[in-house]
Each structure stands twice: as C-alpha cells, then as structure tokens.
Amino acid sequence: MSLQFGLYAPIPMAAVGSPEIARAVSESLHPLPEGARDAQFDLGIELLLAADQVGFDLTLFAERHLGHDISGWVNAAAIASRFEHMRALVAVHPGLWDPVMIAKMAASLDRICKGHMAINVVNGWFDQEFEMFGGKVLQGEERYQRTIEFIDIMQGLWRNETFTLHGQHYNVDKAQLLLKPRSPQGPEIFSVSTSDRGRDFIANHCDWWFVEFPKEAASTEEVLHSLETSIADMTARASAAGRKIRYALNPFLALGESAEAAFDATIKEIFAYDPDPDTRKIERRMIPATRAGCIGRPEDVRKQCQRFEDMGFELLLLKLLPNVENIRRIGAEVIQPLRA
Predict the structure, then answer these.
(1) Which of 314, 318, 331, 306 is nearest to 252 (CA)?
(2) Hey, where are the domains in the chain?
(3) Which CATH architecture has domain 4-29+37-339?
C-alpha cells in the first residue's frame, strides 16, 4: 500500500491559525445563540469531509478533557460516520475510561465508519485533568501495566465470546460484547513513547508507533538520522517479540514558493488568529515538526514524503493550517501526484 496521509480533527488542542478555532475558544464558556453550533464542530465537518474527498486516509480525534475541545469520542461519532474512505483514530486515556466501555464504544464506531476506526492509546501526564475527571496518573511500570491490561481487555472482548482478566488494575469476569467490531481482529492500536520502557511497551502491545522528532535536532538531515536510528531500534525490539510494528510520523506540512515563504506565511496566519497562542502547542508540537522538511514547493515536499516512505514510514499524520483551501491544495499537489 502507498504512503498514507492523515490529519488532526480541528480542535483548540491540535489546531493553530484558524479563525473558527479562535472563535470556538472565545465562545466556549458562554451559551451559544439559538440554532448555532460550536464553531470547531462546523469547521470539523467542512474540513474533514473535504480531506476525505481529496485522498486523506485517517483523522486523529485527539482528546483533552480539561480544555475548550469537544470530546474526541463525540466528535468522531458525529463526523466520522460520514467518511467514505478515512479511518477515525480516537484517543483514549487508560485510567479515565473503563476498558469494557471503550471496547463497546470502539466496536460501535468501527461498525458505522466505512473506513473503520483505530485507537490512539495515551498514557497520560496531566495530573489535574486526571484527578478532575476521576482518574489517577501513574508513574513508571504501574502506568504501563495498567495500559497493557486495558488493551488486553479490549482485544479479548473483540476477539472472544467471553473474556476474563484478573489484573493489578482491572478485573473482568466472563465479560462479553454482544456487538463485535466490523474488522475481525478489532481496531488497531496506535501509541507514542520515547523512553526505553515505553518502546518495549510499543514493541509488544501496539500496532503502530508515532515516532517522535528529536527536540535537539537543528536540521532536517539531523532529524532524518535520528528517525532512522529510532526505527532500527524499534524494529529490533519488535522482531525479538515476534512482532512487526508500523511507523507513523507527524510532520508540519505547508506549501509555498519556497520553504522560507511557506514558513513565514504559516507563522503570520497563526498569529493573525492566535495573538497569544498556546506556547506549549507551538514549541513542543509545531516547531520540531517544521524541521521534517515538508515545508516549501510541492515538488520538494513530495520528494521528502517519498524519503519518509523509503525509510519505512507508512503514515504521515500532518500538522497543517486547518482550512479547506489548504486541504484541497495538499490533496491536489502532494497526495494525488504521489499516487498517480
């Protein structure tokens, strides 16, 4: 299969440079006028249906409970059922959700999505969010053990008539789902982790690994070298476990007459609508992703995408300016030519 392309559902946590997202944030603490819908939801419908039409393969519905964002599961259920091709990748925080409930919700969404659904497991770090919503952040081995049990229960319910697990964090006895997922093995599991223990968790229990960018890398070539090293390490770990991991990456993609012009236009757009943007979102998520080499002329971006595929990446989950014009241009000038 050719290189897949994905994007984030536009919510305040994941989107920059959008008047609709800025409006959604400004309205989030107030009732909406009669007949109005949340601006991030209306943008999501327009943007993601356009992405589905021009060749994108997957949408990540991220989840921030303590934020202005619409719930990822609500968003996915309302929008992804209208996809003709794209998969819905929905974020889950073990420790905030019951695994039996998520197994049922995932089976339901899988059956109403033509492109199927998948689960992005997020181990969690935001203590205040976890505590406010009834959970607890765990550290070290405990955190991974809880997530392993969470995954085992979901997959056990998807693949068996009944399932029993008495673990350190969850106990289910002869549990069953009377609604199975559309896909026989159940939704695939995605995750991200950089620590040594986290990489072992990915190698043994997940289907896809989002490989993180090295924060210290200053150039694209340094980024590529680090990514190659990470893939080699994970391939060895998975092979030792008798498994194969698929690789995904989150580059920032912007098209323009040159890399400098595209980058400058992107920054201008961000600050036009976010005069005081979330610095964590900019510094930790956007800036490292801009060093992936996917900014500039369409032909140069296509070459870089091909380099990533040659390295072993099967999915590029793009960070981008969330407007329909940009989505259609990326489809026409990057995705479709690569598949011609």
Answers:
(1) 318
(2) 4-29+37-339
(3) Alpha-Beta Barrel (3.20)
